[in-house]
């Protein structure tokens, strides 16, 4: 609590992740954080201060040595079994997604991945089928193809919609502007 108060005193926001053995505190804000970090580092309850995280640091790995396991339709991702997720880059038709699901299942993959939303640099390029594409995943379920569904979320506005149809939400990078993925 004292560390959080100190960070707030300097005008920064705190994002903490509490583990069983330690707490990792992320300090978010703009400007020179040197004075804030030095004051926190001097506190007796602080083990370490690291001001230079790589761009996509897995903070949960810093507080827990246990693997993260994700259970999807009876499949465990992150466990001892190698799990294959496969499918088309984008969902383009009912026939395509059903044939893809059959091929993916026959090949031994456990999850079907297909993009319903597609980022493109040109408004004239294929943008994805959006909700209609998501609905095609439901038809795959009716055909008794028991595969988990993975698809991307391109905007926070679409999280609830995508979560309704998919088992796993893939978070798309906001900077992705290629025509290949």
Report what the structure shows.
The structure is a single chain. The chain is an alpha/beta fold and 181 residues long. 29% of the residues lie in helices and 18% in strands. It has helices spanning 2-9, 34-41, 59-63, 94-106, 131-142, 159-165; strands at residues 13-18, 23-28, 70-72, 75-77, 85-86, 111-113, 148-153, 168-171. It has a 4-stranded parallel beta sheet with strand order 5-6-7-8. Helix 4 (94-106) packs across helix 5 (131-142). It is elongated, with a radius of gyration of 21 Å.
Name a few traits of the molecule.
four-stranded parallel beta sheet; two-stranded antiparallel sheet; disordered C terminus; 6 helices; 181 residues; alpha/beta
Short description:
The protein is α/β, with parallel strands linked by helices and 181 residues long. Helix content is 29%, strand content 18%. The protein is elongated.
